[in-house]
Amino acid sequence: MNIDAWLWWLIGAVGLGIPLVLTAMPEFGMFAVGALAAAVTAAFGGGVVAQVLVFVIVSVALVAVVRSIANHHREQRPQHRTGIDALKGRSALVLERVDGSGGRIKLAGEVWSARTLDADSSFEPGQQVDVVEIDGATAVVM
Question: CA within 20 to 30 Å of 43's CA: 65, 91, 102, 140, which one?
Answer without folding.
Answer: 65
